[in-house]
């Protein structure tokens, strides 16, 4: 249940509709980024041929950058699709989520010092929950 304090209006989101919309976004992103990833990969040999010219090889590096960007976006879309489509968790979320929550609380309690979580605790959390430590640290620094 969410509320807007300025207008006093309360509204609620249906979790099934949100999950369905996220699944649609993830599937669409997977299709789009896979298509553009393969397209970029096929252009790499062609732009490599331009390396013999005495000019800077800007087309090659642009296509290489786009290939990497679509690969990362494809990985993110597939991960989102995996998270949203996990029906075993959707059927009984409370038991698994409570266990994960207890593990996370324990790891946070061990690593909490001076008002923030230390890097060793973040590393342990990333290992436990299969997260990319560099991405987690990047987002921690942004907040």
UniProtKB/TrEMBL annotation:
The keyword Transmembrane applies. Keywords: Membrane, Transmembrane, Transmembrane helix. The chain crosses the membrane at residues 43-65. GO terms for biological process: potassium ion transport; proton transmembrane transport. Pfam families: Mit_KHE1. One of its GO terms (cellular component) is mitochondrial inner membrane. This is Uncharacterized protein.
């Amino acid at each position: 249940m969410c509320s807007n304090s300025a207008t006093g209006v309360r509204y609620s989101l249906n979790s099934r509709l949100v999950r369905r919309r996220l699944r649609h976004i993830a599937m669409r992103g997977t299709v789009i980024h896979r298509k553009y990833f393969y397209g970029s990969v096929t252009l790499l040999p062609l732009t490599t041929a331009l390396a013999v010219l005495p000019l800077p090889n800007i087309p090659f590096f642009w296509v290489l950058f786009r290939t990497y960007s679509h690969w990362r976006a494809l990985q993110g879309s597939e991960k989102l699709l995996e998270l949203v489509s996990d029906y075993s968790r959707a059927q009984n979320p409370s038991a698994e989520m409570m266990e994960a929550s207890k593990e996370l609380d324990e790891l946070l309690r061990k690593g909490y010092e001076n008002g923030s979580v230390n890097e060793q605790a973040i590393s342990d959390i990333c290992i436990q929950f299969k997260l990319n430590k560099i991405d987690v640290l990047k987002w921690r620094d942004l907040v």
